């Protein structure tokens, strides 16, 4: 028997610490890099007051003048006992910077730790770690956290509810790859069999503002899981602020949802699924051949329908759209899982149509109903932006509570940024993939001299001249606003800002 030898948990040759964990930069390090221009010497300045989010300073003024950020921080429902605990402002400021940067994981927060400009502009002392963020959100009592975020979401958009508006309701899927709470297999058209969460979302149509979002397990996709939150939202909203009507896809064309809307005397517009009785209605209407013009490329007819289980007969509008006979095909998987494609041949004078049946309590004519439903397509653009450009597809934790709180937080920051962008460009909505490189990303260097702080911005955007004009217009508006700010409350300032941001929608009205 040989001598006992202790074995190291790190065998020789294995690094005890990842290079990514060695964050300190050696001083006075210069590297010679060979480029097409020749040899270039590279040095790091580890303590420079610089930022890659150089134009955030203008958004900070928006948050200050609108009295948005300070109340959000003050209402944060967490009380820290330890003197070493992070400040509320540092936690929420870090969250704001992370979401605005387009991140979708807590680990991405590390990329912000050395920002030498923006934390100070937000009144922060530091950017907190990803672990501090996770632990703090875990300590939030869910009911209090939901009430806190709902309060500030409502403050964003409530003044606009005095105008005629439409409430779009829809759900989307967030795919999950672990064993998180609520990770259940449900309806998932893009990745069948993959567990998910469902995001039940209420939106202000056309303005693309998020009213509220609820996160539920992946198998709770049906409208029966959405309607309690939907009608609770309406019941908590003053009647004078209610929408002109509720709009949704075929998942909401159920007797339960429509009855709840009828009991509250609020109009609705939904699509119906292609059940047997709905198909018989389409056949009967098509044989009448009494089509009306329902928009370019569309025809429509109205009728009455009462499905089995419905308590009453309701008005429906059948819409048809001509489709090309060339290349018309049906595709799907057969019993063995193989994809099959069957081409349909349409000969002679036969015409191919795509039919859809809309159910509504609106008094609009056939063309008006059809156009209202076509406008609903904007919902999908909102979901695409929220999931792929903001972070609804990320910030995942084992518990569902933090997923719910982060979904609402992202919706709030998205609303703030959308309104700020409209303040700079009120003509139309710019998605984050366009607005962030345009109005946020730039290199900024902060210097101080004789008690004066100066931020020098260098933008690499091809439209930097346009950016300067847009942001100069925002600053000029705030200068004018501040000249009367002593006579205005924070709420009155926010109304002025909102009126300016929505001047195209409001036609100049306050």
Structure commentary:
The protein is of the alpha+beta class and 510 residues long. The chain has a domain at 145-390: Transposase Inhibitor Protein From Tn5, Chain A, domain 1 (Alpha-Beta Complex), CATH 3.90.350.10. It contains 16 helices and 16 strands. The protein has helices spanning 56-65, 69-74, 88-100, 118-121, 130-138, 142-157, 223-235, 255-263, 276-288, 366-375, 378-390, 400-424, 432-439, 464-483, 490-501, 503-506; strands at residues 30-35, 38-43, 50-51, 166-175, 196-204, 209-217, 245-247, 268-271, 292-293, 298-305, 314-323, 329-333, 339-343, 352-360, 443-449, 452-458. It has a 9-stranded mixed β-sheet with strand order 6-5-4-7-8-14-11-10-9, with helices on both faces. It has a 3-stranded antiparallel β-sheet with strand order 3-15-16, with no helix packed on it. The chain has a two-stranded antiparallel sheet with strand order 1-2. The chain starts with 29 loop residues before the first strand and ends with a helix.
**Assigned CATH architecture of the domain at 145-390:** Alpha-Beta Complex
User: Mean of the pLDDT scores?
Assistant: 89
Strand content: 15-25%
Quote the distance from N terminus to C terminus. 91 Å
- Relative helix content: 25-40%
Structural class: alpha+beta
Strands of the largest sheet, in order across it?
6-5-4-7-8-14-11-10-9
CATH topology of the domain at 145-390: Transposase Inhibitor Protein From Tn5, Chain A, domain 1
Q: Biggest β-sheet: count, sense, barrel?
A: 9 strands, mixed
CATH C-level label of the domain at 145-390 = Alpha Beta
Query: In CATH, what is the homologous superfamily of the domain at 145-390?
Result: Transposase Inhibitor Protein From Tn5, Chain A, domain 1
Q: How many individual β-strands?
A: 16
Overall radius of gyration: 28 Å
Low-confidence stretches: none
Number of helices: 16
What is the global morphology?
A: globular
